[in-house]
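Hi support team,

I'm opening this ticket because the web form for multi-chain structure prediction keeps timing out on my end. I have pasted the exact lines I submitted so you can reproduce it. The total is 856 residues across two entries, so I didn't expect it to be a heavy job. Is there a limit I'm missing, or should I split the entries? Thanks in advance, R.K.
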Amino acid sequence: MKNVSDADSNTAGTTGLIRPIIAKAYKESPHLLHVLYALQQQCLHISDEAVREVAAHLDLPTSQVDAVVEFYSFFHKIPRGRYDILFSNCTSCGYLAGGVDLMALLGQQLGIVAGNTRGDGLVSMGQTSCIGMCDHGAALLVNGMPIVSLDAAMIARIAALVEAETLLEDWPAGWFQVDDNIRVSGLLLKDDLTAGTGLRAMLALGAADTLSAIIQSGLRGRGGAGFSTGMKWQFCREAQGAAHYVVCNADEGEPGTFKDRVLLHSYADSLFEGMAVCAFAVGANQGYLYLRGEYRYLLPHLQSVLVRRRELGLLGVDILGQPGFSFDIGIVVGAGAYICGEESALIESLEGKRGIPRVRPPFPVTHGYLGQPTVVNNVETFIAAAHIVLRGSAWFRAVGTEKSAGSKILSISGDCAAPGIYEYPFGVTIRQVLNDCGAKDAQAVQVGGPSGMLIGSAEFDRRLDFGDLPTGGSLMVFSQARDLLAVIVNFAHFFAHESCGFCTPCRVGTVLLKNGLDKIAGGHGTQYDLDEMQRLVTLVKFRSHCGLGQTAANPILDGLQRFPQVFEQRLVQRDFEPHFDLDAALEDARQISHRDDAAAHIE
Amino acid sequence: MSADTKQNPITQNTITIDGQEIPFLAGQTIMDAALAAGVYIPHLCHRQGLTPHGSCKLCVVDIASRSASACTMPAVAGQQISNNTPALNEARKTITQMLFIEGNHICPSCEKCGDCTLQAMAYHLGMLGGHFPQFFQRREVDASHPTIMLDRDRCILCELCVRASREVDGKDVFAIAGRGINAHLVVNSVRGKLVDSDLETSDMAAHICPVGAILIKEHGYEVPIGQRTFDLHQVSEVGLEKTILTKVRQPDE
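Hello R.K., no limit was hit. The queue was backed up. Here is the completed structure from your submission:
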């Protein structure tokens, strides 16, 4: 480490500002992501100097802090505006969801191009992956707070409020109102557990019988993969380790999914109860809730529920007077990375690193958080577990199908009359779901989000369960009026943006797929490009390191198989068309010269 | 299957690669067992003695019909593994092309030409060109260090230098930052410059780069083109890596 004094003397001016922010944040929570969040909030960026200061304060390598800052979407090395506006780009809650380009509209009114910070530093504007507001139409985050149900009139008012530098707390409170929109309640949503009832039932059963009840219930992971929850807990319980951990995956990043938002908002007690049940069954003393950064606005509420549960003796030392049963839960908030929904990437992020999926085996149940046995489950899974210990495995098994016991909470969005939360017994048909949500002229449904499956109307009698159509809960409806190719292009952009970059097939492949699709959608694709897509999707799907890469090509694969016409009708009838687009290449020059007349284009 | 293994104890500690039975020891990966038996599985991010990484994906094999990285997958008795098949080599060629087009690889003007494992891999797999449109990414060159050069244009993100520094040199000079296609090699020092790091010419991390991203200065073109490693050897010669590393680390011998 030579030349330290050099670097210090260059920037000594701001060190005095940065150090207290770091010290204060660190005292509140020593987690790297939380310290970086505080810096981003207060300094509007994380400078090289701040990176060095954080590394020194947390005793981490500078490179690790640097790597983390550059990995997560909500950290920036270049200053953002005092109003940092991020539009969702999801097909359901994105800036195009209402048919008007709301981001372009705001950009015009504020005199700013998407992706930039305005010269005066007042405002920056950009797009971000789905923020989980899909039942509310177009949505954005302003300084991390969601504003939903956007329309052109609101955009004009937002522009005015920003220009007037009105404090966020003085913006119309109704804009920030996020409703639960529960349309159909089933097994879990019908009634919330009274805090502590599940834990009392569990203590009466004892750890071994609690575990048996979960195994016998047939509960399978609600994140979509569907591994037996009871078996997972048992593997973790049996694994040797200095400590065991319980982690709740609340990094609900799959576009079109928002059920965890509702569960965290209105069923947090049941969730924490379920985590405590798991802790009791596997012998853990510490749990973590990994909350996606987009849901940071729920943090005060979640913290208050934890405080209340500690006061009630439902968390902490000797829970409900049971000697030796001590368990507490900490919340770690992410910072914009879909990959952290993958359980081993989530654990890496919990450890203050980039969210890179680990090599498996070993699995988290034996080598998880800090290398110790760890259960990672979905929010919905823990809630189901809390209900099962109280009501019994037979109660749970009575609903659903033989292989898929219980219910599934769906997040339904897109082209339907009543988007929202629907809870059904497993085995329900897509047709039934579409009828209930008022989707009259659906041409296709994306089951399980972009990483799931795109099906057409011929398959609407298929059933939602682990044997037929497994799903983490996202269900996006596309009417006859939708341009399906635009949807598939949107998903391809999403995966290219969210690929962690670890393995070659996904890192490069998702970009090649995105570029290829853009070419076809732009009317420059040939049969050759379509054949290339086919070849690439196979490679990306079968040769990628983790679930992200292995599913990233699904929308294209399903599209080519079920809706080949949406690709073919855009093709040009030539043998070859270059990727290089002469007219598009002139765009920079047009921007610089403020020209957009016919003579500034080549066609 | 289990009845078979009981009858024939020899198969208990063997895997089968392309029909060839190969013994393995507990704890070995498929790659370990294959290399020990002299069977080549293409790889770029793997080096014996360093923690397996599984990122380049050149070592993809099929076990039954499931894809796996040979360098990270533990060998399990009775595994039926496909390795040297036209389909797998085609996938590997495409992956190699991906590595070429995401970076800026100008072989004729690169000092590593002829000693470059990526280039040798391309020849091995019959790659005639990058196939895909070039990404032309802007990547930073770091010439700050007096004796070591870092040209990120050629970096393939294999993290061999990251691991060598951490696990062999006992330092922590390199890391990967950024996400997706923006992932890039960073240097662990106050200004992120190589000169501020504690990297030394004698470190393994200074020599392990399979491409020309990390080069020792003032030793360019000491070995003429035509007499370089892969002018004389095939990349598929098992054990060659040790020869390369020894040779480069002691250029005077």
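A quick check on our side: The helical segments of chain B are 2-7, 30-36, 86-102, 117-124, 160-168, 229-232, 240-249. Let us know if the file doesn't open in your viewer.
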